[in-house]
Amino acid sequence: MATYTIKQIVPTRLGFSKGLHAVAKQYPQVVGIGSDITNSVGMDGIAAHFPDRFYSLGIAEQNAITVAAGLALTGKIPFVASYATFIVMRTLDQLRVSVCYNNLPVKIGGAHAGISVGPDGATHQALEDIAALRSLPNMIILSPADATQTEKAVWAAVEQTNNPVYIRYGREAMPDFTNEHEEFIIGKSKILTEGKDCVIYATGHLVWEALEAYEILKQQNIYCTVLNIYSIKPIDIPSIIQTAKICQCAVTAEEHQIMGGMGSAVVEVLATHYPIPTEMVGMNDCFGESGQPLELMRKYHMDRMAIVEAVKKAIQRK
Amino acid sequence: MENFSFLLQTSYKIRKSIIEMLAEAGSGHLGGSLGLADIFTCLYFSELKHNPNNPSWEERDRLILSIGHVAPVLYATLAYAGYFDTKELLSLRKINSRLQGHPGKDKGLPGIEISSGSLGQGLSIATGLALGLKSNQNPARVFCICGDGELQEGSIWEAAMAAAHYKLDNLICIVDRNGVQIDGTTSEVMEIEPLTLKWAAFGWYVSTTNGNNIADILNTFDETRNILSKPKVIIASTSMGKGVKSIENDYRWHGKAPSKEQALQFLKELEHGYLHY
């Protein structure tokens, strides 16, 4: 019997769209900005229902982010979304100076994130966005595990903070499994399974893969704690330390470059508070390629089997 | 014209402060700051609807300084307009100062609308502001000061396209056309002409003015005020270093501060120029 059951298989972007529709209904100051690919990134949540609060700005991401900053100065809460790699990497200076330095409540949707965007290939696979944004003061980074959490992340971005917020989500249909009644709090994490052999710190799509790895390892009498790190910045330092103390070794798992990602954030916490042997699952300093999402996750070692191997390695190093 | 002599006198005080501030700081952008003194005087002492005693007044006209490096002219103008004590001007660029090298909103200096300093972003900020003000049915206008060299940034034209698309007639961009940037003249570094045609082609109402002539500037503000359903750009010809004869139009003074001795000389030149206006 699996610890978690799949409610449905849906892309996380649907949660973004649903959440956006709901917050726009609740808060008249929420506005949307379109960068041409409105529907596919979930901006239809506002564009389709509140057309007078939606500004189409065309294929011009630098302007889109900065116009959002200007709108925020008039009391609006602007949401901007596009391919994660373009809305972050192309606009990094705008994000740094106009949004973060001014600490304006611009909410950014990083859609189609990770290698699981698949056949489009390397140019469209955002694997560096977390690293780039982690270094920007005032920026909050949320990386929900499924559609249910993505919807909650949109609410949290509006209700829990006046800071800029980045919400990272994917295109591929993935298991939706988190409990809809669970809280989603910026700066917290969620323990999904409890075990004393190794702790797996996972984020985004790899949270489900970590749960699958948990089941495989359980068959081999290896018991893992799985922590869903849905808030990467700020990160849940107390829970990381507490689980590290129980398990004495760790694995980090994310659909992102190992350098500078969620794993790096966890390792920074461990190194300064409670150093333990840690293995890191993620993209290993290379670009992706075309292929089916699951094929790519396997080829680039960002799936359940990669996590299983990493756990065994970490335990050996205890 | 009483108003005219008041504005002239104010522009003199602003220029004088700019020279003193930069000499004290030992670094900063002298040329562009001096060149813009007349436009800033006309904005803050005539054209802008604002209240120094209530800097966050909802219906104030907003000034977005896209070229953050000419912060000294903004600071000096704000001080003389009454936003803060002119004594604070001498803290420019020093540690713990509210007068950052480029405007930093986080430092809490009254009158600063936005932190700026990375070129090419101000017009997008102004576009977002103008959109938001319209949506809030707020009658305030947005003035954005851009440099001419700054127009080489591609994002400026993304903003220009969007502002015209949304018919933002509450947005006025002032281009400081001094023809000079750090590496030399704009023509040598990267040609931006034909400027009037470019803006017009992007759907803007274009006006030109002598940005160092107070009467001309005021007339241009009058002319553009009632133009509807288009954003407006004023291409203002200015001389970098205006007011100090020996450095006027010399691009080497774009990003330089005078030494204390040079400053004394420049202040003499400035006074002489105004006496013989």
Description:
The complex is a heterodimer of chains A (318) and B (277). Chain A is an alpha/beta fold and 318 residues long. Chain A has 2 domains: 8-176, Rossmann fold, CATH 3.40.50; 190-316, Rossmann fold (3-Layer(aba) Sandwich). Helices cover 39% and strands 21% of the residues of chain A. The relative contact order of chain A is 0.14. Chain B contains 10 helices and 7 strands. Chain B has one domain: Rossmann fold (3-Layer(aba) Sandwich). In chain B, the strands form 2 sheets. Chain B has a 5-stranded parallel β-sheet, with helices on both faces. In chain B, strands 4-5 form a two-stranded antiparallel sheet. Chain B is α/β, with parallel strands linked by helices and 277 residues long. Helices cover 42% and strands 12% of the residues of chain B. The two termini of chain B are 14 Å apart. The longest helix of chain B is centred in the N-terminal third of the chain and has 24 residues, at 2-25. Chain A binds chain B through residues 31, 53, 55, 57-58, 60, 62-63, 65-76, 78, 93-94, 96-98, 101-103, and chain B through 62, 104-106, 113-118, 120-121, 124-133, 135-136, 138, 154-155, 158-159, 161-162, 166.
What's the short story on this structure?
The complex is a heterodimer of chains A (318) and B (277). Chain A is α/β, with parallel strands linked by helices.
